[in-house]
Write a structure and sequence with these properties.
- The structure is a homodimer.
- Chain A has a single domain, classed as Hypothetical Protein Pfu-838710-001 (Beta Barrel).
- In chain A, 9% of the residues lie in helices and 48% in strands.
- An eight-stranded antiparallel barrel of chain A has the order 1-5-4-3-2-6-7-8.
- The first copy, chain A, is globular.
- The termini of chain A are far apart.
- The interface between A and B is medium-sized, with 21 and 21 residues.
Chain lengths: 159, 159
């Protein structure tokens, strides 16, 4: 079991791009999103994973992840996942001792950029980079499973 | 990908017990059951698996299975699966060239016994043993994911 403590933010400007260490392209879909859990399939380069997360809203979740064959992941995405799939580039940005993950969405969620930090304990203090915007940790719309159901391109008003 | 072609039957009598080759105890739970797919965690002896099935009703389904750590499976069952869990003994019964799986349920589904055959191709003929009862392949109530939601002990009228 891994206990995941995460905080999500919008971005105030583009200055984070200067600090990108590396980037990866993710394609992922949801088999299920319900009150208790979400189940995700993700392909990144030539590897794929199945991920189970408890659906507790906020900063504290149970998470399990298993590597699976890419060919299985492709089939599961094509036949069993909700559409649209989530397509995004994840940029890894170092700030002090913290590694931020900045997700730049494409496809049906193009235009959305979200920064996320995962902490190893609940309530641990962290330094906020100057490029960080409003916190959206508790805003359900920004969860990837919800972006697969209600993509950013269809939001009436955008923050 | 595995294509699963299965037929389910009730039992006409207890004569199948004389032909049991071996039996295993299964405990399993469902993370999700929905129109597109079901996701199951199963523990059998000291091993555990995560299983994804397309929810097509009838004899033709997509299926994927991955072994996972038993400790993960125990936690996922305790925290994320629908209750009641499915508890059953699976008996393997040889009849001619076919290996039948006969599931004898316990717990909330005690009293229910279902025989199942998995074929390697759609429409392949198979010999029906004399102990076989009515076919219930198309009866949704007998699917394990539905037995986790509406267990046999709560059915009003029993066949």
């Amino acid at each position: 079991m891994a206990l995941e403590v995460e905080h999500k933010f919008l971005l105030a400007n583009e200055n984070w791009r200067q600090a990108v260490e590396r980037s990866e392209i993710f394609r992922q879909g949801y088999l299920s999103s319900q009150p208790t859990s979400s189940i995700r399939v993700r392909i990144c380069e030539r590897r794929a994973w199945l991920n189970i997360k408890s659906a507790t809203v906020g900063t504290h979740r149970l998470e399990y992840e298993y590597e699976i064959p890419v060919t299985d992941a492709e089939e599961i995405m094509a036949h069993l996942c909700k559409k649209p799939l989530i397509e995004k580039t994840r940029h890894y940005v170092r700030h002090g001792n913290d590694l931020w993950e900045i997700d730049e969405f494409e496809g049906a969620n193009q235009g959305l950029i979200v920064a996320e930090i995962e902490l190893d304990e609940i309530g641990r203090a962290f330094d906020k980079p100057a490029w960080l915007g409003a916190e959206v940790t508790d805003d359900l719309r920004y969860y990837n499973n919800n972006l697969a159901l209600h993509p950013y391109s269809e939001w009436g008003e955008k923050p």
